[in-house]
Amino acid sequence: MSVADIGAGTGYFLPYLRAGVGSKGKVWGLDLAAPLVKHMNQRAKKAGWSNVKAVQVSPNDPKLKAKSVDRILIVNTWHHIGRRVEYAKKLKAALKPGGSLFVVDFTMEAKRGPGKKHRLTPTQVSKELTLAGFKVSVAKETLPEQYIVKAE
User: Alpha-carbon distance 89 to 87, whole Å?
Assistant: First the structure.
């Protein structure tokens, strides 16, 4: 299995994703910031995670090959993406058959996160992903200030 974490930052989720895919799987940490990509690659090297690689991407291109990943995780980042429907179409093309995309972002009521004018409702995220051709559902979860939208 292969997983991509888009907007991976310092790589918080990398060890968890690595554990999920096992030693034969592949984890990609994708981020815009070169210093964060460097940090993730150094972290992976130091930890001996040969199946984890960080890559610098551009705001409009996740740089994922067609049908190359099984899962895509986007945490607290979807609201930063400019042309989300077009971006989502690229993500859909990158998923292998049966693959899934998970968007986790702040609720409108969250006490932390971006300013309210930058936040998106799960309904808005679902609409954008549906327009990109995904089948979408909002996950039932217990996160205190975030929601999860699953797209297949």
Answer: 5
What does DSSP assign to residue 61?
B
- The pLDDT tens digits of the residues spanning 22-70 come to 989 999 999 999 999 999 999 999 999 999 999 999 999 999 999 999 9
| Orientation of helix 84-94 relative to helix 122-131, angle to 10° | 60
Residue 26 host element (H or E): strand 26-31
Tell me the pTM.
0.95
Q: Cα separations (Å) of 52 from 11, 79, 144?
A: 10, 26, 30
Angstrom distance (rounded) from CA 101 to CA 70: 9
- Which structure tokens are listed for 51? 């199946």
Of the candidates 72, 75, 23, which has an alpha carbon nearest to the alpha carbon of residue 47? 23
Q: What is the amino acid identity at position 133?
A: G
